[in-house]
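Good day; I would like, with your permission, to put a structural problem before you. A protein sequence and the structure tokens that stand for its backbone fold form the material at issue. I would ask you to consider whether the tokens describe a fold that such a sequence might reasonably adopt. I set the record out below, with my sincere thanks for your time.
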Amino acid sequence: MNDHAADPAFIAYSLTASALALKLWLLWAATGAVRAKSKTTPNLEDTTTVSRGAALATQDPEGVARAMRVYNNAAANELPFLVLGLVYVLLGAPANIAWILFGTFVAARVLHAIVYAIGVQPWRTIFFVVGQLAAAGLLVQVVRAALAAV
């Protein structure tokens, strides 16, 4: 067993990374399901193979476009958080702060994806801002820890 396996901050990070990866996979699958339901495909070769009978669409139907926006927003916001989270843990993050920042971010991003998918404002913006505040807090903690190590 390596040193990180016993580190509570690393465990928090591991659970965070797992939850966000699972959420991205579910969003990816949901996008595929919405596309299948629309019976459209953006690729000509798919009309005769994996999406036999689907219409070739140069533009995604609204449901597919929304599902793609939800997925793209998640991927764009979660990747930097995961990188910073790992750096923070490697810099010796206190477990309590890691749990608070990671837990807040995961909860906000899960709720953001749900309300984004169904089109509910102002909750989409509220959950986005909460997630961004957690990410900003993480960035501050990483910079603080890095400067303290110099």
Remarks:
- Strands lie at 40-41, 55-56.
